[in-house]
Amino acid sequence: MNTIELEKIAKKIRMDTIKMIYKVKSGHPGGALSIADILAILYFDEMHVDAKNPQMPDRDRFVLSKGHAATSLYAALAAKGYFAREELWTLRQYQSILQGHPDMKVTPGLDMSSGSLGQGLSIANGMALAAKLQKKEFRVYAILGDGELDEGQIWEAAMTAPQFRLDNIVAIIDQNGFQINGTTDDVMKVASIEDKFQAFGWNVLSIDGNDISAIKDAFQKAKNCKDRPTAIIAKTLKGKGVSYMEDRCEWHSGVPTEEQYQLAMQELGGNE
Amino acid sequence: MGTTMREVFGKTLQSMKDDPRLVVLDADLGSATKALMFKSVCPERYIDVGISEQDMVGMAAGLSTCGMIPVASSFSVFITGRAFDQVRNTVAYGNLNVKLVGTHCGVSVGYDGGSHEAVEDLAIMRALPNMTVLCSSDARETEVMVRAAYDYKGPVYMRISRIGVPDYHKPDYVFKIGKGEILREGKAAAIVATGIMVTEAIEAAQLLAMEGIEVTVINMPSIKPIDKELLVRVAKETGGIVTAEEHNVVGGLGSAVAEVLAQNTPVLMRFVGIQDKFGCSGKPETLLEEYHLKAQDIVRAVKEIAKTAK
């Protein structure tokens, strides 16, 4: 898919994310908006998946390790056709197929539940290992938050992927620079994420994580890299696309007022 | 003394090597849990993740969603404690087909001391929705339990002990998840035991019989789901139940039995088990005595309630 079409999809994901949170008055917009471009490319360009056959055995897998960003993932899944867009407005409500954090038991197209941070990379490694053992070609993608890197399990998994030569896994680190209590530098300095993954033996790529062509290019480079897993350090803007949310820690979770909602929709170019 | 449960665990895994879905995961304790035995027959599906139980359980979860059947093992304290959130939020919440095996449970671990002696694993695993909880009592039961856990679709936690115990099961013993086993019948009271306490319960019944007190003895390998029907029946027949487990009396077998009986057939109960204490170092046999986990302790408990029961 070309860049312009992908940009359109990313925009749609952003609008639906804001609309969902505004309608149900609950959710985490900041970290959901930062990964909208990556999700658009994953589901509409990169991953081998079929919305009509969500359990297709040889499909590529996706793990949203930073589960609180569920809204933009749900918007992407709806856009892809896994379920009706109307379901989005049931987010976080009783008996909804869209739980507050991803629940694979109820949402079509979800490959893994998440919500407790730090677990996604190990799980993705397990999926990638399954592909190797079964001699299958499917690839595994995981989006991790940079705040989430505080969790020790991430670094256990960072050692495991190169150990088992899982070159079919791509870990995308959404480096938006914030966690709940402040900037990642203020709360817990992770220092150079690049150096750390490199030291563990990963193929490391640093990109602008809100730049469609840069993301596409990185995924291609990841495919060309054999014998090593790839970590894409994606520098993003938390709240990307909505001026008053951009780079603002307080929009980690929060609900726009009606005025703010209208402004967000205007800025995202929507007229729905 | 027969083969230890751990050796049977390792041998059973070896015998299952031709099933391409089986992946054995280890966190650098395979030589103690005996999971390492699988490596010699199937190195490609023996995955040692190093000393990282959380990563191991996460990997197992990922593998399970792609059609593999992972068997992850470690000491009971680590696989249920160190990796609790991974077991809770990923394996149990996702209702994933992951088998968790915890060895070295209870004070019979011995010299390693309290840090390595799980007294709470049954309680915390039992409290997780979707989780099936099993506890083996001898070599034969370990073998059939590993196979039953493997064939069952869903998350399972299985507990086996470090020390050897006598093999009391015949080779044709059939184990079913959710079923208890009557080993002896009597009217004065019933002893419901699990794990290495089953052989103590059998001995206790023999000692009681010498005094003219005939008791029912039940092996309860399936802690969750538990055999409600059998428990209600023996409670009605005997009027008093003593549970016996090498686990804290809070939340384990005794609690599970009490939960059933309190709602159906309330009878007087006694709980033989670890009395809300951590373990410590020592010779296993010494610790079992000091923690009151011997046949004599069961005898004493039976006498307390048999008196008032009939």
UniProtKB/TrEMBL annotation, chain A:
<dbReference type="GO" id="GO:0046872">
    <property type="term" value="F:metal ion binding"/>
</dbReference>
<comment type="similarity">
    <text>Belongs to the transketolase family.</text>
</comment>
<dbReference type="GO" id="GO:0016740">
    <property type="term" value="F:transferase activity"/>
</dbReference>
<keyword id="KW-0786">Thiamine pyrophosphate</keyword>
<protein>
    <submittedName>
        <fullName>Transketolase</fullName>
    </submittedName>
</protein>
<dbReference type="InterPro" id="IPR005474">
    <property type="entry name" value="Transketolase_N"/>
</dbReference>
<keyword id="KW-0479">Metal-binding</keyword>
<dbReference type="InterPro" id="IPR049557">
    <property type="entry name" value="Transketolase_CS"/>
</dbReference>
<feature type="domain" description="Transketolase N-terminal">
    <location>
        <begin position="8"/>
        <end position="269"/>
    </location>
</feature>
<dbReference type="Pfam" id="PF00456">
    <property type="entry name" value="Transketolase_N"/>
</dbReference>
<dbReference type="InterPro" id="IPR029061">
    <property type="entry name" value="THDP-binding"/>
</dbReference>
<keyword id="KW-0808">Transferase</keyword>
Automatic annotation (TrEMBL), chain B:
<dbReference type="InterPro" id="IPR029061">
    <property type="entry name" value="THDP-binding"/>
</dbReference>
<dbReference type="Pfam" id="PF02780">
    <property type="entry name" value="Transketolase_C"/>
</dbReference>
<dbReference type="InterPro" id="IPR033248">
    <property type="entry name" value="Transketolase_C"/>
</dbReference>
<keyword id="KW-0786">Thiamine pyrophosphate</keyword>
<feature type="domain" description="Transketolase-like pyrimidine-binding">
    <location>
        <begin position="3"/>
        <end position="167"/>
    </location>
</feature>
<dbReference type="InterPro" id="IPR051157">
    <property type="entry name" value="PDH/Transketolase"/>
</dbReference>
<dbReference type="Pfam" id="PF02779">
    <property type="entry name" value="Transket_pyr"/>
</dbReference>
<dbReference type="InterPro" id="IPR009014">
    <property type="entry name" value="Transketo_C/PFOR_II"/>
</dbReference>
<dbReference type="InterPro" id="IPR005475">
    <property type="entry name" value="Transketolase-like_Pyr-bd"/>
</dbReference>
<protein>
    <submittedName>
        <fullName>Transketolase subunit B</fullName>
    </submittedName>
</protein>
<comment type="similarity">
    <text>Belongs to the transketolase family.</text>
</comment>
